[in-house]
């Protein structure tokens, strides 16, 4: 009999279809009564498929007494209770890949889109306004300063891209990096004050929660732009809405939000805000790669072989 698995959230459709060919798949996100579904099928589920955003909570262990494997479609670090899994002898796998270039491409695209008013002027033309008036002017990138919050892999890739556009680069992080020549700021408010656009690429942790608050946005100033390709919780969303409404910053471009997929109506209504639905790593190439890794992990486990991508 095919093993029963529980998929917690929607994943890449071809990967889900492949799972359905090999396993009995229960789709938790589609259930009208999720707790009821867990009570009905939980005792037979041997593997769970989740994502880096959905994760796996300690409480879910109790609903799945025969669980052997948690397979994450994504990196998974920080989203899954690894200690709890280890205590129960449950294997945790992920799909290691490099998303830095993909997210950095989007980051650069968002910088250009918001500073050059690309989405705003697209709507201007579609609304038939061009015949009667001219659109608002955008801003050049060349000669401007791009401040990067968190100069990790993604931050470095963005720095390379904006540098090619003629922007100066400076950065904030927990410590200075001595293998690069960019100017370092130990205070994020000071970085914002120096920047024409502030790009958030750091990890979401307890320390970075609401790191970009009203004080930082005030320092960024009326000519400054905020770009967030990291996680929604790093930016104080209420403070951002207020800053945009009151003209304390020039605009924002956002790939992530506090309560995805729910985006505040105030942000949606603003012309000087570019909004995309968390697509930093949403490319066909990355999804195909992740799907192949996920399927390989499940196949190895249920064949009695060591899984290729286990998390410790």
Provide tags for this entry:
5-stranded parallel β-sheet, 12 helices, alpha/beta, Rossmann fold
Task: Describe the protein in words.
With 312 residues, this protein is α/β, with parallel strands linked by helices. The protein has two domains: 4-97 and 285-302, Rossmann fold; 100-275, NAD(P)-binding Rossmann-like Domain (Rossmann fold, 3-Layer(aba) Sandwich). It is built from twelve helices and twelve strands. A seven-stranded parallel beta sheet has the order 8-7-6-9-10-11-12. Strands 2-1-3-4-5 form a five-stranded parallel beta sheet. Helix 11 links the parallel strand 11 and strand 12. It is elongated.
Report the CATH C-level class of the largest domain: Alpha Beta
Strand order of the largest sheet: 8-7-6-9-10-11-12
Name of the CATH architecture of the largest domain:
3-Layer(aba) Sandwich
The amount of helix comes to 25-40%
Distance between the termini: 30 Å
CATH topology-level name of the largest domain: Rossmann fold
Query: What's the assembly state of these chains?
Result: single chain
Question: How large is the share of residues in beta strands?
Answer: 15-25%
List SSEs in N-to-C order: EHEHEHEHEHHEHEEHEHEHEHEH
Number of domains as seen in the coordinates: 2
Count of separate DSSP helical elements: 12
Q: CATH superfamily membership of the largest domain, which one?
A: NAD(P)-binding Rossmann-like Domain
| Largest beta-sheet characterization | 7 strands, parallel
Nearest-integer average pLDDT: 96
Contiguous uncertain segments of 5+ residues:
none
Number of strands: 12
The backbone outline, from C-alpha atoms, is elongated
**Estimated radius of gyration:** 22 Å
Helix vs. strand class: alpha/beta
């Amino acid at each position: 009999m095919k093993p029963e698995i529980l998929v917690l959230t929607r994943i890449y459709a071809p990967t889900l279809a492949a799972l359905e060919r090999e396993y009995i798949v229960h789709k938790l996100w589609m259930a009208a009564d999720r707790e009821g579904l867990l009570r009905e099928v939980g005792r037979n589920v041997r593997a769970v498929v989740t994502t880096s955003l959905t994760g796996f909570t300690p409480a879910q262990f109790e609903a799945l007494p025969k669980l052997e494997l948690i397979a994450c479609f994504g990196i998974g670090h920080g989203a899954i209770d690894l200690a709890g899994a280890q205590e129960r002898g449950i294997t945790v796998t992920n799909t290691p890949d490099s998303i830095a270039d993909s997210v950095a491409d989007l980051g650069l695209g968002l910088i250009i889109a918001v500073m050059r008013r690309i989405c705003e002027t697209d709507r201007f033309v579609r609304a038939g306004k061009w015949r009667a008036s001219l659109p608002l002017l955008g801003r050049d990138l060349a000669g401007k300063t791009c401040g990067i919050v968190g100069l990790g892999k993604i931050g470095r890739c963005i720095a390379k891209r904006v540098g090619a556009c003629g922007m100066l680069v400076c950065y904030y992080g927990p410590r200075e990096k001595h293998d690069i020549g960019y100017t370092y700021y130990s205070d994020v408010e000071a970085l914002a004050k120096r920047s024409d656009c502030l790009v958030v690429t750091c990890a979401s942790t307890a320390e970075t929660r609401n790191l970009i608050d009203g004080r930082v946005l005030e320092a960024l100033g009326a000519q400054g732009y905020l770009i967030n390709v990291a996680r929604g919780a790093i930016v104080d969303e209420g403070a951002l809405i207020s800053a945009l409404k009151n003209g304390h910053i020039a605009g924002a471009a956002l790939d992530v939000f506090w309560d995805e997929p729910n985006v505040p109506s105030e942000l949606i209504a603003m012309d000087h805000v570019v909004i995309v639905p968390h697509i930093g790593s949403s490319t066909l190439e990355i999804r195909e790669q992740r799907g192949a890794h996920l399927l390989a992990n499940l196949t190895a486990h249920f064949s009695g072989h060591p899984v290729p991508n286990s998390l410790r």
